[in-house]
């Protein structure tokens, strides 16, 4: 069994005014494994630390519980003091009886009972603790940003500016996220595209940033500093190294009745498409669910008109694995489904629109050209 010392701090009157610290110390002295239990005016002071050090040496303590303020305040102080006299610093636990007890209670009896409970929990934890040794492990100096919206873009730019390699994984064919669909930004009513598109271009041109558009994170393993990530690159059926983004295939595609998700279904697009004019990367994508060549084996017009020879109907999903030291999750949001909220007859009247649909309607590049 551990030989544990309990040390209860008055913290002047911060704790002692609400908590009966003498009672806390005497009650915790009866806990299994506790061989010494003392209270003191300021346990973090030099004399308070010496009291702890002396008890560790004289009583041969294998663990210590300090009932005091938040661990964020003085945990390092107490652990350093314990380590200086031979007690492993990870065998020291701090029970927060100030922020989590005395400062939030007015009833002295209630506060004292809670302080005792917190002390008992810390003692129980020390019984289960084992001495640890701090170590070092190599860190992969590469970051992953999941999500290529404005938050992910800015995160990638900041990481790259700090000098580290960074990859952006975006599930859509282009980065930009929801901000690409917005016409004006609050409160200045600046053009959203005027703010966003320069940052998109900066990402594409930065040597330290690699964009995996139309891709998804398949699996994440490992731990902070050493993550192993598997990324799925979905088949576009277009060779990104050959496609020039000329848009000729999108113009000639005969399938023009596919709902345009970029415009929230307010108009249609072709089976081969580029989401919007400023897309990054500006590479065409073939919708496998609507392309007649992929679904019926008939058509192939886009392949015939593509002068770069970028169309590849046999392209398959591919996977890559990469190591990362840090992961930024910037996956954004999805608007709430209005199926269960029909107070304004959204499902019944075409003149009732959502705020994002309104943004597309007022945008000069929207389905109605802003008119």
Remind me, CATH topology of the largest domain? Rossmann fold
Biggest sheet character: 4 strands, parallel
| Through-space gap between termini | 79 Å
As residue ranges, the low-confidence spans are none
Total number of helical segments?
11
- Strand runs, count: 17
Structural class: alpha/beta
Domain module count: 4
Strand order in the largest sheet: 2-1-3-4
What does the average pLDDT come to?
A: 96
Taken from the alpha-carbon principal axes, the silhouette is: elongated
The CATH class of the largest domain is identified as Alpha Beta
The quaternary organization reads as: single chain
Order of helices and strands: EHEHEHEHHEHEEEHEEEHEEEEHHEEH
- The value of Rg in angstroms is 31 Å
Bin the helical content: 25-40%
The CATH architecture term of the largest domain is 3-Layer(aba) Sandwich
Approximate strand percentage: 15-25%
Characterize the structure shown:
It is a single chain. The protein has 371 residues and is α/β, with parallel strands linked by helices. The chain has 4 domains: 4-128, Rossmann fold, CATH 3.40.50; 136-234 and 317-333, 3-Layer(bba) Sandwich (FAD/NAD(P)-binding domain); 237-315, Alpha-Beta Plaits (2-Layer Sandwich), CATH 3.30.70; 337-371, no CATH class. The protein has 11 helices and 17 strands. The strands form 6 sheets. A 4-stranded parallel sheet has the order 2-1-3-4, sandwiched between helices. Strands 9-6-5-17 form a 4-stranded parallel sheet. Helix 1 (21-28) packs parallel to helix 5 and helix 6 (150-161) crosses helix 7 (192-205). It is elongated. The termini are far apart. The mean pLDDT is 96.
């Amino acid at each position: 069994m551990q030989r544990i010392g309990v040390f209860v701090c008055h913290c002047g009157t911060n704790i002692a005014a609400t908590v009966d610290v003498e009672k806390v110390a005497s009650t915790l002295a009866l806990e299994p494994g506790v061989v010494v239990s003392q209270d003191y005016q300021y346990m973090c002071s030099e004399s308070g630390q010496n009291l702890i050090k002396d008890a560790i040496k004289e009583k041969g303590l294998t663990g210590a519980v300090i009932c005091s303020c938040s661990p964020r305040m003085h945990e390092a102080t107490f652990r350093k003091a314990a380590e200086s006299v031979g007690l492993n610093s990870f065998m020291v636990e701090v029970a927060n009886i100030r922020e989590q007890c005395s400062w939030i209670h007015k009833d002295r009896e209630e506060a004292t009972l809670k302080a005792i409970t917190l002390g008992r929990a810390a003692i129980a934890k020390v019984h289960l603790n084992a001495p640890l040794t701090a170590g070092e492990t190599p860190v992969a100096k590469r970051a992953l940003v999941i999500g290529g919206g404005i938050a992910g873009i800015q995160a990638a730019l900041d990481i790259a500016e700090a000098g580290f390699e960074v990859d952006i994984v975006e599930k859509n064919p282009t980065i930009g996220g929801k901000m690409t669909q917005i016409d004006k930004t609050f409160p200045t009513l600046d053009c959203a595209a005027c703010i966003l598109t320069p940052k998109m271009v900066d990402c594409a041109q930065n040597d330290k940033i690699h964009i995996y558009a139309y891709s998804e994170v398949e699996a994440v393993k490992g731990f902070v500093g050493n993550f192993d990530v598997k990324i799925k690159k979905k088949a576009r059926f277009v060779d990104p190294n050959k496609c020039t983004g000329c848009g000729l295939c999108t113009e000639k595609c005969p399938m023009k009745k596919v709902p345009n998700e970029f415009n929230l279904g307010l108009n249609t697009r072709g089976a081969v498409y580029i989401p919007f004019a400023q897309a990054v990367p500006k590479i065409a994508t073939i919708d496998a669910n609507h392309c007649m060549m992929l679904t019926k084996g008939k058509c192939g017009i886009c392949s015939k008109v593509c002068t770069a020879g970028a169309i590849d109907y046999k392209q398959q999903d591919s996977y890559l694995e990469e190591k990362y030291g840090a992961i930024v999750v910037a996956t954004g949001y999805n608007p709430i489904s209005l199926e269960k909220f029909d107070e304004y007859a959204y499902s019944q009247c075409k003149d009732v629109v959502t705020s994002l649909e309104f943004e597309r309607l007022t945008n000069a590049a929207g389905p109605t050209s802003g008119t």
